[in-house]
Amino acid sequence: MKLRKVLRIARWEVTKNAGGVDKKTVAVAAVALLVAGLVAPYAASQGIALDRGIYRVGVTEESPYYQVVADDPTFVAREPSEDALEAGRIDVLIEPGEPPDAASSAKGDAALAELRSTVDDYNDQQMRKETNQSAAFPIAVTLRYVERENVQEVLDPGATGGTDTDDESDESDGETGTDTSGSDDGSSDGSGDGTGDETEAGDGTGQSGDGDTAAGGGGGNVGGLAGSLASGNASGTPADISPPFPFQSLVLAFLFVLPLNFIIQAYGSTMLSERLNRRGELLLVSPVTRFDIIGGKTLPYFGAAITMAALIGAGLQFPDISPLSVGISVLAITPIALLFLAATFVGAMFARSFKELTFVTVTVTVSLTTYAFVPAIFTDVGAVALISPLTIVVRDLQGQAVTLGEFTFSTLPPTLTAGVLFALGAGIYREEDMFTQRSIPLKTLDALAARVHGKWSVAAVSAILLPFVFVAELVGVAMLFAIPEALSIPAILVIVVVVEEIAKSLHIYAGYAHSRFEAGLKPALVVGAFSGAGFFVGEKFTLLAQLVGLPEQVVVGQAALATGTGAGSPSIPVVIAFLLAPLVLHVVTAAISAVGASRDRESYVLAVVLAMIIHFGYNFTVVSASGAI
Amino acid sequence: MIEVRDLRKEYGGFTAVSGSSFTVDSGEVFGIIGPNGAGKTTTLKMLAGLLEPTDGTVSVAGYDAGDSEMRRRLGFLPEESPLYEEMTPLSYLHFFADLYDVPEDVAEERIHETLDQLDLEHRDRQLGDMSKGMKRKVAISRSLINDPDVLIYDEPASGLDPLTTNYVIDFTSRLSDEGKTIVFSAHNLYHVESICDRVAIMNEGDIVAQGGLAELREEHGETEYHVYTTVEVPGSVQENGRYHRIVDSMDDVETTREAAQDAGGSVVDIRTEESSLEEVFLDLADPEVEA
Fold first, then answer.
1. What is the ipTM of this complex?
2. Quick count: other Cβ atoms within 10 Å of Cβ A456?
3. Which residue, of A167, A346, A462, B178, is most buried by count of CB atoms within 10 Å of its CB?
């Protein structure tokens, strides 16, 4: 691949598409973006008040309620009079020494309820302004949310039993100890030096009194616009206490994923249009490689995705933008962007029409958004969140530290998976595959067959597909970790065997479909053995999960990723047996599938199902032996 | 300039081209003709490096087909004109000039020169708004953007109206006069006869005949002798007061002359008619069909 050629194609890709939009449209879009860019921060800082001035309150300037009414844009102050209330010119009347009186109408009742709420908030604000917070809030509650080490202990205390578990559950739900000022996101340890005028009480654990956040969870240290997403205050009444909802994680994850869904629409369209009417044929015959073409056509969309991530990252920190933090966000979003683009690229290579492409992009959008978005919601929960690189972004924006191991665990699998997908798509980015109208399953086989030429390439493909397998299994873990083990472990075992047996055998079937291998039992056994061995070697990649201790933290993660490894300090023969057993398993099951693949499609399906049953039996035995079930 | 040896292409179990061999000399115009599905386009695409041969070798200007340097010296025109319809002719041609590393000033001059020769106006209009003939002219301009030594044209006049067809064929002929080596396929055998130095006839993936036009006629065509006599001879028919006999050898001509003399008449005219390329083609492509 030559960078010069890639950049040229990228430049023309941008100008080519720009040619389809006239100058007036470009100008209008630019102005609209500019206005939106100028207005959005102002609107965000001012808040949106669609209900401005809808309630009219009769109150004099001398009344203590006047400032409450004046500060809330929902209300508008009017001259107080009984006549005005009866005539419906005001909704609430406040007279000195009298409780507020509402007009006898639904609107009057609503105005009074709103006024009470506003008065409560106003009082809290006034109390927070007090220099002596101990006097303002004589009883304080420290909210300390801890990471859940094993969700089953919470959901099913009896399983691991005892009152200790119950205590942990209670602690997990917050409300331990007493102190001042409230805590923030719960991921901190809750101990340390108190500042300000805190009043020690209860167990006496100090708590920072920086007034950052409080109940509502997920506050963190994020500032700027993102900071306004955090709810709650550093102090307040018991009514302010509520279980943590990962609102900020959710919004931040959503903000970063959303633009990718639009970018891949344009990218998929341009890649597919190269195939329709043979438009890409002339690029293929020009003095550039297919990798130059793919790189050049992908680069603008990748650049757009990264630029959007940088802008969102910077925008969320505005006005205190940290280049390092934005850089981490961009680095973490890069694998997600690559994965979205790679999956769309393969989809565009497989689709026969824009109708099929729509189906493909919707599938990609839903699948990858689930992969990226769902784990990131649980940013404050534990290692399972690190399955998604978005968690790195969210943590970074919340001011939490990210270790190199966590970063690697989150970003390497999707990066490698994106590489595998691009390689598969590139395999059929050639004249004789690009312009043929074959169904998506057949195109999938074509793409795999393009990489298979002999037994060694079969082993290599089995190993190379591991990131794909790994990501699929991690998504399974992310989807299942919160449900009871009795269901989640068998479910994840099924997912594992289905994904792994297909990954070990589909390219063998593709090879046979394209006459890459000799017919007969012996060649099939050899090819299968090589596939199993390649998969065994690649499987060591899953040790990456140990970087963040996923198998230890989540039982379902152990079932998915730690099968075949023993516990404790076994003897050398046992260790060797544990090491070789997965090899034997993969070789045997892949050989069974290969024998089926060497015959016909029906035989292949039957053989793969048999391989899956054997694999499931093995995994179930190992997981049972490890005590996970 | 082009050397093809035992070229073979299979798609799954289907053999599209089965062991073709031919050479094309520098400056020569080489035509490939054959019925639909004969393997012409597949052969041309293998020459252009678009398709990888299952077996055999292709050498163009001393480079293997598909080699980057070979592509740089090649101009390829596919049967359809797959253009980026959002672009204008000028931006489209500049794009390809850029890919072929043609300096900006050279590209500018070459683009306008070629478009002038092809009489293409509306150079700032989007390609999607242009007629098929105009698009074809842009596609031809693109094939010349790198000033290639070798041109591979697949049905250059396919689907065009007669006027544009003649224009394109004339233009191709002029390129030949400039010394370009041209390999092209066409269904219109008149066009092939008018500009080709040599021709290969393909059928069902095989080259069934190749050579110069005269050579092909001599080897695969027929020469008919139309003998006109004043008297009736065996095998003759009366035509406009004369007797007309068609024979296929000079010996038969002599026999006819002797027969006319024996009957008291004489031979008044002898005309020779050779098979056209179309007749040779039809005969080779489908021997069952009478030309």
1. 0.79
2. 10
3. A462
